[in-house]
Amino acid sequence: MENQIDTLFRKYQKGQLSLKEELLLAEMISNPDNSEADRFLKADFNNYFNGQIYEKREMKQVLHAIHHRIHLQQSEKQKSTVHQIYHWTSRIAAMLFIPFLLISIWFFLNPGINTGQATLLQIVAPQGSRVNFELPDGTKGILNGGSQLDYSSGFAANRHVKLSGEAWFDVVHDTKHPFIVDAHKNSVQVVGTKFTLAAWPEDDLTELVLEEGNVLFKSPGTGKVLEVAPGQRIVEKNGEIERSQVETWKYTAWKDGRLIFRNDSMEELARRISRWYNVEVEFDKKGLEEYTFRGVFEDDPLEEVLRLLKMTSPIDFEIHDRQVNTDGSFSRKKVIITKQ
Questions:
Q1: 305: part of which helix (H) or strand (E)?
Q2: Fewer beta carbons under 10 A from the terminal one: N or C of the chain?
């Protein structure tokens, strides 16, 4: 049993596990009656920290702590068969995110250890997934695929987080401790509200859409501080800020599994498809990026989205399956968009 756990865990660390093996490993490490798995994880954990004994918390408590912060939602569809991974229990969420949170959780659960500074904790949403999370103050949210949320072990004192990518927040009300999100070159300050915020590094812009409550949008680069009301959308790019009234559901639909395009350019569409389906998207000719597209997709497979694009735009596409790299890893699936 121990050899099997060791083999599976090492394969997972190298990114070589199949889905079946991932589920098997999750079952093993999450089973409270599996003493071999518990002993292996403790030994591996202690070895990582150069022999520092880890006896204060049982591994199941670590998994429980992780569960309260994240829950992976991932879907994969192939042809007519639909494979959905939406409501797995804590064992799946814990296993999938051990490499991201294990070290941070260890420090979090051992406050007596003097690190000399606050510990950074991270929540990461892999490409092609959506991750539910809950912060120590009870604030809940959802990270879009390819996004990352950072906060420190001293979060309770300042409620300060940093976002790279896109997230939806449902912030717990606390007038004494405003909730602050640093996003790209800007920041958003709230007391208690619901909003979605996007700050993709490669897009070089920040987008805020407010559902409820009131927030302050701060742009140090422009020196402006804007009060934002429900239903408003703020976009900052290259020092220019635009404010508009919008239907918020169109901008928050991604958290419910809907992909919506609103006269978006083909270039923007390619970026979002790449993040949503975890694929590479390329154009074989210049000029294709300028076409625009409108459409709503709900849990549709990649092939169906591309087929509808082909029906409504003068484009065609080629799909290249994943290839084995020289180091044994796999490349991402590639979509090449061509002109008809």
A1: helix 302-312
A2: C
Same domain, 19 and 136: no
Residues 82 and 201 in one domain: no
Query: Residue 242's beta-bridge partner residues?
Result: 235
CATH code, 132: 2.60.120.1440
* 287 and 333, same domain (yes or no): yes
Task: Give the pairing of strands 205-212 and 215-219.
Answer: unpaired
Rounded-to-integer distance, Cα 100 and Cα 111, Å:
19
Same domain, 179 and 210: yes
* pLDDT one-digit tens code per residue, 12-44: 655 566 666 766 766 676 565 666 666 665 555
Q: Cα(214)–Cα(95) distance, rounded to whole angstroms?
A: 37
262-299 pLDDT, tens digit each: 888 888 888 889 888 889 999 887 777 778 888 888 88
84 and 191 fall within a common domain: no
Q: Is 227 exposed, middle or buried (0-12, 13-18, 19+ CB in 10 A)?
A: exposed
